[in-house]
């Protein structure tokens, strides 16, 4: 299984694209989140929307769903097929009613299902979403009272999405569930009110930090290279083999 980040930036970053990913397994491609910058980022990497085998969403912010209107229109009018859309059951109604309906709906009775093959997921119930790719949604805290999810793929790869700091969850993932690779959002400056901030991540035990790769960071990320403990910044557009991601040895 390989991953290529379309972007590794925070919602307000301008030198990095939105934090969206391509997960590739056995020739199939899953788009994880589709933010405002995703259409252009896909194009720049040589992809079109028809190259995607499915789309998976973590939550409703524009840096994670803002590219879906263009994707839906291109799939309908250019490629003439409905893309598979995985999302938590709690997100289905808000995605249509509070976000996409305003732009996509042209006939009064049109719904999300007219544009996507919608596949709702239940939190905590792992299922195979593409051949060889198992996903479990883990509910995490981001914005109070709004549904938000982290992703656990094939029992070993944890993708935090946007989340506040949850060291107990990270401990249980690594020490009880055998997670080997953690892609974690990383707001570079404290306080981490709706995100996890770097000073919080630096309090993790070294044995956990060694599994952590940092994403969703701000434009001043270059200032922090070498100041992330045992954790490593993920670079956008670089392809990482998740089955063989060496844990970097760093001096303490
Ligand atoms: O209560 C709030 C809600 C939002 N925000 C900002 O808006 C951004 C929306 O996208 P994001 O979730 O990647 O990051 C969020 C933050 O940068 C915030 O600072 N406090
Ligand atoms: Zn975000
Ligand atoms: Zn968010």
UniProtKB/TrEMBL annotation:
One of its GO terms (molecular function) is metal ion binding. It comes from the Bacteria. The keyword Transcription regulation does not apply. It holds the Pfam family Anti-Pycsar_Apyc1. Residues 17-216 form the Metallo-beta-lactamase domain. It catalyses: 3',5'-cyclic UMP + H2O = UMP + H(+); 3',5'-cyclic CMP + H2O = CMP + H(+). InterPro entries: Metallo-B-lactamas, RibonucZ/Hydroxyglut_hydro. Keywords: Hydrolase. Counteracts the endogenous Pycsar antiviral defense system. Phosphodiesterase that enables metal-dependent hydrolysis of host cyclic nucleotide Pycsar defense signals such as cCMP and cUMP. This is MBL fold hydrolase. It comes from Cohnella abietis.
């Amino acid at each position: 299984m390989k991953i290529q980040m379309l972007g590794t930036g925070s919602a307000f970053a301008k030198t990095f694209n939105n934090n969206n990913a391509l997960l590739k397994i056995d020739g199939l491609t899953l788009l994880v989140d589709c933010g405002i910058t995703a259409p252009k980022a896909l194009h720049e990497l040589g992809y079109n929307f028809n190259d995607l085998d499915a789309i998976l969403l973590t939550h409703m912010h524009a840096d994670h769903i803002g590219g879906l209107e263009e994707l839906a229109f291109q799939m309908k009018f250019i490629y003439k097929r409905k893309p598979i859309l995985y999302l938590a059951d709690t997100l289905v109604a808000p995605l249509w009613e509070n976000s996409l309906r305003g732009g996509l709906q042209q006939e009064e009775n049109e719904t999300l299902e007219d544009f996507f093959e919608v596949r709702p997921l239940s939190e905590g119930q792992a299922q195979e979403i593409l051949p060889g790719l198992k996903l479990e949604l883990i509910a995490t805290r981001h914005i109070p009272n709004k549904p938000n999810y982290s992703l656990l793929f094939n029992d070993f790869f944890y993708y935090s999405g946007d989340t506040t700091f949850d060291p107990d969850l990270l401990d249980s993932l690594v020490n009880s569930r055998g997670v080997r690779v953690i892609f974690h959002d990383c707001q570079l400056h404290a306080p981490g009110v709706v995100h996890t901030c770097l000073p919080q991540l630096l309090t993790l035990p070294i044995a956990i930090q060694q599994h952590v790769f940092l994403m969703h960071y701000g434009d001043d990320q270059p200032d922090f290279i070498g100041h992330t403990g045992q954790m490593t910044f993920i670079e956008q557009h670089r392809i990482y083999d998740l089955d063989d991601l060496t844990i970097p040895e760093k001096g303490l």
